[in-house]
């Protein structure tokens, strides 16, 4: 048969170039070891002829889609699955796929208030219980800060929040806007430890309800105002602004407008921190080998990642001067690896909270992100900025203040 010859050629090509520890098991009973000299670490079961097309063009999008939709069955350790899937995608990568991804980024993606609200709801409103199973107790859903490298997740997340609030020099009485406040961890810490008056905004109903409940339990209603609100609808002036894990939802074409809004909300003596995931492609293309397409389809609809160069350019165009830039890529690789480990350990409980398809989506997404951060396919930067043209410094002349310990 034609497909048998095609598959045999495909297997032989891999054996010559990579010899992956992968076994294929077909619906016919046939088996292929892609490295006959090594015991397979991953077994890939192909249940029907129609499933073969996903394998023969093994982009991360195709492989991820096949796994999520049940077109392929995979057995093996999760990290081995991710590594072998990436190896297959790398072997068969084509320049045209990267070009198409860049085209979608620059010319696609509308970001109306309704579309953004629906996208945020899709991702964050699975259920609070779902996220509680694998996040830290404060439910901080962004990169931790492993100052010494051996912190547990909960400690790293508190250190991250303190690192942010210290970097922007939050003072008692400061009015702080937290754009994309999540479940309220940063807002609560800013009020409790730093004495700020906080407005936190989110488009997620679940996050809003839990954040408000947590603020109430802490007795901080007079210090923290949690709102369901689009960043484009915020008014007033703020001494400090934080945006953590949010600008990935803005869209490349709207970054300048986003930073202009921050500029207009920021007091003339104000300081802002943007903490967000960036592309490692200088052209701000999607993650390679089809990984970005999979995330767009199943995880973050309408999410777009700029390169750090574009971030800095658009900030400057919007009237903001970048003052300090820190790459936390290795910190996020470690964070995602812990999340993926937690997710695996909590599998029975998580499967009680969601369906098999969403379970598979998040399983490969978390482990895949750990892999992508570790290999410099995506990064994350903290950028401290102020309004352009200041003649006197708003921050200390050196970075020493960022590392001074506070009780």
TrEMBL record:
Keywords: Lipid metabolism, Methyltransferase, S-adenosyl-L-methionine, Transferase. The active site is at 369. Pfam families: CMAS, DUF7884. It is an enzyme of class 2 (transferase). Its EC number is 2.1.1.79. GO terms for biological process: lipid biosynthetic process; methylation. The keyword Manganese does not apply. It comes from the Bacteria. InterPro entries: CFA/CMAS, CMAS, DUF7884, SAM-dependent_MTases_sf. Residues 14-86 form the DUF7884 domain. GO terms for molecular function: cyclopropane-fatty-acyl-phospholipid synthase activity. Belongs to the CFA/CMAS family. This is Cyclopropane-fatty-acyl-phospholipid synthase. It comes from Oxalobacter formigenes OXCC13.
């Amino acid at each position: 048969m034609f497909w048998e010859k095609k598959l045999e050629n495909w297997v032989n090509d891999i054996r010559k170039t990579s010899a992956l520890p992968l076994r294929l098991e077909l619906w016919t009973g046939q088996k292929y070891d892609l490295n006959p000299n090594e015991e397979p670490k991953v077994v890939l079961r192909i249940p029907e002829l129609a499933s073969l097309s996903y394998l023969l063009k093994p982009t991360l999008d195709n492989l991820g889609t096949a796994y999520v939709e049940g077109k392929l069955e995979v057995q093996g350790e999760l990290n081995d699955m991710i590594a072998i899937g990436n190896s297959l995608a790398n072997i068969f990568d084509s320049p045209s796929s990267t070009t198409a991804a860049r085209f979608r980024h620059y010319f696609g993606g509308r970001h109306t208030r309704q579309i953004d609200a629906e996208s945020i709801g899709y991702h964050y409103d699975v259920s609070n219980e779902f996220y509680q199973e694998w996040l830290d107790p404060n439910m901080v859903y962004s990169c931790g800060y492993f100052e010494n490298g051996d912190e547990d997740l909960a400690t790293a997340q508190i250190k991250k929040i303190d690192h942010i609030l210290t970097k922007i020099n939050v003072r008692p009485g400061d009015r702080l806007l937290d754009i994309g406040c999540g479940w309220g961890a940063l807002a609560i810490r800013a009020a409790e430890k730093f004495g700020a008056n906080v407005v936190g905004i989110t488009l997620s109903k679940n996050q809003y309800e839990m954040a408000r409940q947590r603020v109430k339990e802490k007795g901080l209603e007079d210090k923290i105002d949690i709102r369901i609100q689009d960043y484009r609808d915020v008014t007033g002036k703020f001494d400090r602004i934080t945006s953590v894990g949010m600008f990935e939802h803005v869209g490349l074409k709207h970054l300048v407008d986003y930073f202009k809004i921050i500029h207009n909300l920021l007091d003339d003596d104000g300081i802002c921190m943007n903490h967000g995931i960036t592309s490692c492609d200088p052209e701000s293309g999607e993650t390679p080998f089809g990984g970005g397409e999979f995330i767009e389809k199943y995880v973050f609809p309408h999410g777009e990642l700029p390169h750090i160069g574009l971030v800095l350019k658009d900030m400057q165009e919007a009237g903001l001067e970048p003052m300090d830039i820190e790459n936390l890529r290795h910190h996020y690789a470690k964070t995602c690896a812990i999340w993926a480990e937690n997710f695996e350990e909590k599998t029975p409980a998580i499967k009680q909270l969601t369906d098999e398809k969403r379970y598979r989506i998040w399983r490969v997404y978390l482990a895949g992100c750990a892999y992508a951060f570790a290999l410099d396919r995506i990064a994350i930067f903290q950028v401290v900025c102020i309004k352009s043209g200041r003649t006197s410094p708003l921050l200390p002349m050196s970075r020493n203040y960022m590392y001074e310990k506070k009780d």
